[in-house]
Design brief:
alpha/beta; about 50% helix; binds ligand C2E; binds magnesium ion; EAL domain, c-di-GMP-specific phosphodiesterase class I (Or its enzymatically inactive variant)
Amino acid sequence: LALPDTSSGWRLYQPSIEDALQKRIRLHEALRIALDNQQFFLVYQPKIDLRSGRVIGAEALLRWVHPELGFISPVDFIPMAEASGEILRIGDWVIDRAIRQLEEWLAAHQVAADFHLAVNVSVQQLTQPDFARSLLHRLLRSRLPAGALEVEVTESGLMENVDLAREQLQLLSRHRVSVAIDDFGTGHSSLAYLKTLPVSVLKIDRAFVSSMDTDPQDQRLAETVIDMARNFDCTTVAEGVEKPEQAQMLIDMGCEVAQGYWYSPPLKVEQFIEFCAERRLEMA
Ligand code: C2E
Ligand code: MG
Ligand code: MG
Ligand code: MG
């Protein structure tokens, strides 16, 4: 770093810029070896059918706990992994881990036969020419029923490269892997594009859900997404449901599925299985 050597205030900032830079470099280095050092694991957030209250699936979310740095949020490290290309290896691991976990749960009858597990996929993964083929290959090798795996892609990621993404998504959906658009409502996608994508789920972004019960405009936005999903033959999932009032509003609007702290935060495997068992008892 070449900062001007003057008596002005510039020098004062030098240490903090270097600190921040050092920290980023350390984090990048840590991220590069995290996978090989088994520092990643998945947590699972239940997806609830709003009509029946049943757990109909889950979303797998990546967690990184570094031995010295502690918990690092995916909001911070996923963009870094995307920028460095590391996301390709990490994303492969997520898919393999999710497939194996789902096989285990189904074999032990810990989840219903029609349960599905969703994994988040970055646009960098999705635009690899062999992404869909490689995923399908792994899925076929597993003993999972068709349709047990769902892929979530953010609306903004999808719009970065619609044409490459469409090819991959078409191959996936032809083999009954369902495609969900994540964070829907924040990514400025055009309806003309949406129409050409084989999407079966729209996930209403948390931002709209969280202010739905206090902001009539966000309520109308959520309602618009649900109506639109219906017209496109898509299921709507509301993310970030934190209050019973929000859940009730969503039911009234015809939203089918919900996720959020009101039902459960993302859980480690053992707690997830407990949650499913308790819910089944409540339902019975
Ligand atoms: P996302 O896919 O939209 O996931 C939903 C996020 O909302 C998760 O944050 C989840 O823990 C959080 N959440 C769920 N319910 C509530 C709620 O009621 N209130 C609030 N305030 N938050 C709630 P998380 O786990 O920190 O993940 C953040 C983002 O990181 C994800 O957003 C996703 O875009 C990305 N991500 C996570 N795991 C993966 C992964 O395996 N691969 C890729 N490519 N991205 C991932
Ligand atoms: Mg997601
Ligand atoms: Mg989301
Ligand atoms: Mg998000």
